[in-house]
Amino acid sequence: MSGPLIALQVTLGLFLVVFLVLWFRLGKPQAENDGGLPRPGELGVGFVTNFFDTLGIGSFAPTTALYRLFRMVPDERIPGTLNVGHTPATVVQAFIFTTLIDVEFTTLAVLIAAAVLGAWLGAGVVAGWPRRRIQLGMGIALLVAAVLFTLTNLGIVAGGGTATGLSGGLLAAGAVGNFALGALMTLGIGLYGPCLIMISLLGMNPKVAFPIMMGSCAFLMVVAGIRFLRAGAYRQRPSLGLTLGGIPAVLIAAFVVKSLDLENVRWLVAAVVTYTGVTMLWSATRRAASPTEN
Predict the structure, then answer these.
(1) Residue 248, Cβ density class (10 Å: 0-12 exposed, 13-18 middle, ≥19 buried)
(2) For residue 274, which of 172, 155, 147 has the smallest C-alpha distance?
(3) For residue range 215-261, what is the model confidence (pLDDT) as tens digits?
């Protein structure tokens, strides 16, 4: 590995240490039924979503769907729980894929920095939103995610080039795109699918998207997760479930399974996420009829 890449990984490691220390100091039950160790179902959600996340499916939309299906986390606390709980497993992914896949360092660093800035600004806004606004935002985000899953399966977003880096206007365009994706990620829309599409459209090798999107998510989720922690806008036990169930899943997916035919999985996720997005918007519409609720 190059010196700059080693420095980037060391920086990421320090970010993770700071995040874990703050989580240890600030983390506490956020509701009466939020204390103790994660339940089997919460660990299972962490394992399944991070397993497929490592293979490129993404974790935010599936986790949101499972949380709503099993009523594990209130809607307004889902974005914070995702950003806090998935952070350690995503950092592990970033270490693995920035080591295994070559990408031009300047491109990697600029796109990561843009995503982090977007997440910092986005988390500060989303952490204070009321339930109805969260439901509206996440409902729309989930439907966008479902469209991306569908486009991927239909081959519409396939392609890309052979480049492993960007320069000039293309690098600027990538930075603007990743800034927006970083901000949207704090609302619960995953960065993986949109980032893969953006990388392909910019003429880069789609494989390069893995270190870029996982590195971006690792750094930005540390930053966003700290803001959600400070605001108490998450749920403690489900977050622990994502972390403790997720890290083993990442290692198994990356070093044991390595690859799967994910087309049928994406179709299933697209269907479930579409249903979840519609029900989230329906809940927000019903809530709007009651002026006494947020």
Answers:
(1) middle
(2) 147
(3) 999 999 998 899 899 999 999 999 999 999 999 999 999 999 888 88
204 by DSSP, 3-state: which?
A: strand
d(CA 217, CA 186): 10
The C-alpha atoms of residue 53 and residue 61 are separated, in whole angstroms, by 10
CB 149, CB 193: distance < 8 Å: yes
Residue 227 carries which side chain, given as an amino acid letter?
R
Residue 85 and residue 81: Cα distance in Å, rounded?
A: 6
Find the largest Cα–Cα distance for the chain: 58
Query: DSSP of 102-168, one letter per residue?
Result: ---HHHHHHHHHHHHHHHHHHHHHHTT--HHHHHHHHHHHHHHHHHHHHHHHHTTT----SBS---H
Between CA 215 and CA 220 the distance in angstroms is 9
In sequence order, what DSSP letters do the residues of 16-51 get, joined into one string?
Answer: HHHHHHHHHHH---SSTT--SSPPHHHHHHHHHHHH
* Domains in the chain: boundaries: 3-288
Q: What is the CA radius of gyration of the chain?
A: 18
Mean pLDDT computed over every residue of the chain = 89
Nearest to 166 by CA among 209, 112, 202: 202
List pLDDT tens digits, range 117-168: 988 888 877 777 887 888 888 888 788 888 877 887 787 765 667 899 999 9
